[in-house]
Amino acid sequence: MSSFPKASLSVETFSQLLIQQKSVWIRKTPGIPSHLRKRFVRRMSGQWIQRYKRQTGLQTLKIASPIRNSSNSYEQANPDNVKIVILPSTNDEPTTAAAGRSNRGGLRKLAKTLIGTLSHHHFELQSSGPHGRVALLNSQDSSQDVSRKILGTAVFLEALGMIICPELSKTEVAELESRGATVLGNEPIEIIDPVESSTGQGNSGREPKWHLDHINSAAARMQGLTGEGTLVGILDTGIDPSHPEFSGKQIYFLAFGPSGDELAIGPKDFEKHGTHVSALCAGRSVGIAPEAQLAVAAVLTTRNRQGRMSGRPAQILRGMNWLVQGSRPLPRSVDIINASFGGRGLNLFYYDRLADARRLDGIITVAAIGNNGVMGIDNHGSPGNYDMVLGVGAVDSKDQVAQFSDWGSVQKRSASGQIEKPDLVAPGVEVISAVPGGSYAPSSGTSMASPLVAGALALILQKYRSGNLSADDIVARVLSLTKPRSGRPHHPQSERRGHGSLDLGNL
């Protein structure tokens, strides 16, 4: 184990040093058969990796997708060049979770075939599933003319049937599309920012827990319902696990960079939005499901020029795949996913995959409907406007729909006709929740309403755990737990409330 670096290194620096060290080990084994040399190098590499993991506390080690440039040095893949490859649909249409998992085996073979038949064969496929191996890239072939060939790793998102590629040429894109794949870019997706309470609506007294009183959470507590035994996934800016709201709670955490690479960092909030959202879902005092466990994927990690937090499809999809797949350090897949972000052009990325996750794995996705209501009808964002996702709007302490809360209609996925969005509404105006550093602050937006519905789903799952209810049954149940719409069918706010305002009184 000589020459092992003693200093604390980033994953990227460690991978570069290990690649260099492999050349040293090869030189130290002259004259022995090739298969024995490779076995020796693998054994030494494994020892280095295990030692590095012990030093850093990492449970998994997945190297970000570096590429070798013309100067033979390594650099991060450019997020603007990353491509998302959506595998072509198969003829099979599985209707059970077991059939779906079996079908994923076929997707894995298809993914390998598609990547393996590219013109330049420059990608090695790495699974991000629970048995994904460490891929330290391109330690061999140092004699190649690297100025003509990009070397990288394509990551297969097994739960979603997608591949993240560091870069693809136009020829390769055309080749993949000729085989039935869809190739999309990696444009930024913005967080649904909190809005200023300048509309005259709100909770002027700022009662710390008005949102819990408004949805009648006491009725759930009287039944002993706290979300215990459920695992809720949060796709957001991260979390501050040291906040008192999460005291004693098991929090699973991974962060992903703009190219879809897993970041070697511990739990943190890249802003404050994720902590606020997570606490509303499962905080000890301000959360609707205080005993639910959290799996937080930090996927909105970059502040753009306008000061808004954003993420890329590559990192959002990596986070979603982790939650659905149940990859380490998760003990299993999550029960519910909350997404408090959105955009107008996400349908191709999420639609079918969200639907399949719900149908095959029993995972329910909840999403904020958006804060563009002042612009009028049909300005809602994806994925909250999908018919297979629970889209959530916002109301104030007087149960009036917030002026910023989006609404409209969407086409049904598998039938004719349209359905209204949002599906329901929940408190989202000046809602007080946790922010990093142990503090609390009010915030307004459909981002605040969405995790309250996610928490309500956790309570329903706890109550009916032995009832073998399907995802559709659970969704129907939460939509029945609403205060009715206004009795006046043409009331201006009627169409903006969906099924009504969340009320746990009849849970």
Considering the chains and any ligands shown, give keywords for the structure:
507 residues, single chain, 3 domains, alpha/beta, 8-stranded mixed β-sheet, 24 strands, Rossmann fold, 5-stranded mixed β-sheet, 11 helices
| Strands in their spatial order, largest beta sheet | 11-10-12-9-15-16-17-20
Structural class: alpha/beta
Q: How large, in whole angstroms, is the Cα Rg?
A: 24 Å
Helical percent range? 25-40%
Quaternary status: single chain
The profile of the biggest β sheet is: 8 strands, mixed
How would you explain this protein's 3D organization?
Mean pLDDT is 78; it is low at 62-75, 91-102, 119-125, 129-151 and 486-491. This protein is 29% helix and 19% strand. The protein has eleven helices and 24 strands. The strands form seven sheets. An eight-stranded mixed sheet has the order 11-10-12-9-15-16-17-20, with helices on both faces. Strands 4-5-6-3-7 form a five-stranded mixed sheet. The chain is α/β, with parallel strands linked by helices. The chain is globular, with a radius of gyration of 24 Å. The chain has three domains: 11-56; 66-184, no CATH class; 189-506, Rossmann fold, CATH 3.40.50. Helix 10 (446-463) packs across helix 11 (471-480).
Short recap of the structure:
The protein has 507 residues and is of the alpha/beta class.
Topology:
Layout lengths: L10 H17 L6 H23 L9 E3 L5 E3 L6 E4 L10 H20 L6 E5 L24 E6 L4 E4 L4 H9 L3 E3 L4 E2 L19 H5 L2 H6 L8 E6 L14 E6 L5 E2 L9 H10 L10 E6 L3 E2 L5 E3 L1 H13 L10 E4 L7 H15 L2 E5 L21 E6 L12 E4 L6 E4 L2 E4 L3 E5 L3 E5 L2 H18 L7 H10 L1 E2 L17 E2 L5
Parallel strand pairs: 4-5, 9-12, 9-15, 10-12, 15-16, 16-17, 17-20
Antiparallel strand pairs: 1-2, 3-6, 3-7, 5-6, 8-14, 10-11, 13-14, 18-19, 21-22, 23-24
Helix pairs in contact: 1-2, 7-10, 10-11
